[in-house]
Amino acid sequence: MKRWKCVCAYDGTEFSGWQSQPGGSAIQDVLEARLAGVLGLHTRIHASGRTDAGAHAAGQVFHFDAAWTHGPDKLGAALRNGLHRAIQIVSIRAAAPDFHARFSATGKVYSYHIHLGDADPFTRPYCWAFLRPLDLDAVRESAAVLVGRHDFKAFSALNGAEPGEDADTVRDLRRLEVLARGRNVRVEAEADGFLYKMVRRLVGALVAAGEGKLATDDVRALLAAGVRTARIQTAPSQALFLRRVLYR
């Protein structure tokens, strides 16, 4: 048996997220079904983490164990053959026996895309088309407050942890940048890890700051209070992309 590390990309529009679902409608289900066709037996894959229904990835990482003797190139080719067109196998290679896609990760990078005004039909499925003005200076000022090691419970769903995970809600948000070019605004977030729906709620707070609904001091107070509140909205999922998973 060898351990295999795989990087994949996917358009999450048609799927119910990464995590396996009873109806087989998740990205994990599709990949495991393809692996079963290649290997002749069901093989569980383990990802760096979950992505929400409708969210996307350019660099999701997963691993699995398999007794494959023909090398990574042929394994990659076999996996790509007949795979759902919304999923791409970017790379695959043998990994150390103790490598774990989730527990070996040192960080993740997400991007969130906002379009100011109505977006065209080719952009709209992958952005938050925001029809009201945004004060980007206020957005950036609030983003600066959030950077650092904090308890991000207020910016998570389900009171912090993903289902089945521990309740530690402290994370090191290393970077939260707001980049603008014309009508396109991109929020880039890098951290040692993210809580359930944390990126979408960070963006929701930043947008509220840009609308004037939250002052920078309000964002700072919400962070310190550590209580989920309706004052922080959860931004739509279709604009969220997992860009990279970081390893040593």
Would you mind describing this structure in some detail?
By secondary structure, the protein is of the alpha+beta class. It folds into two domains: 94 residues, Pseudouridine synthase I, catalytic domain, N-terminal subdomain (Alpha-Beta Plaits); 140 residues, Alpha-Beta Plaits (2-Layer Sandwich), CATH 3.30.70. It is built from five helices and ten strands. Strands 1, 2, 3, 4, 5, 6, 7, 8, 9 and 10 form a ten-stranded mixed beta sheet that branches. Strand 8 and strand 9 form a beta hairpin. About 3% of the residues have low confidence.
Please sum up the structure shown.
This protein folds into two domains: 2-95, Alpha-Beta Plaits (2-Layer Sandwich); 108-247, Alpha-Beta Plaits, CATH 3.30.70.
Sum up the structure in keywords.
2 domains, Alpha-Beta Plaits, alpha+beta, single chain, 248 residues, ten-stranded mixed β-sheet
Set out the fold topology.
Layout: E1 2-10, H1 27-39, E2 46-47, E3 56-66, H2 72-80, E4 87-95, E5 105-116, E6 128-130, H3 136-146, E7 148-151, E8 170-181, E9 184-191, H4 198-211, H5 216-225, E10 240-247
Parallel strand pairs: 3-10, 5-6
Antiparallel strand pairs: 1-3, 1-4, 2-3, 5-9, 5-10, 7-8, 8-9
Compute the number of structural domains: 2
Tell how many strands the DSSP assignment holds: 10
How does the helix and strand content classify structurally? alpha+beta
Query: What is the count of DSSP helices, taking H or I runs of 4+ residues?
Result: 5
CATH superfamily placement of the largest domain: Pseudouridine synthase I, catalytic domain, C-terminal subdomain
CATH names the topology of the largest domain as Alpha-Beta Plaits
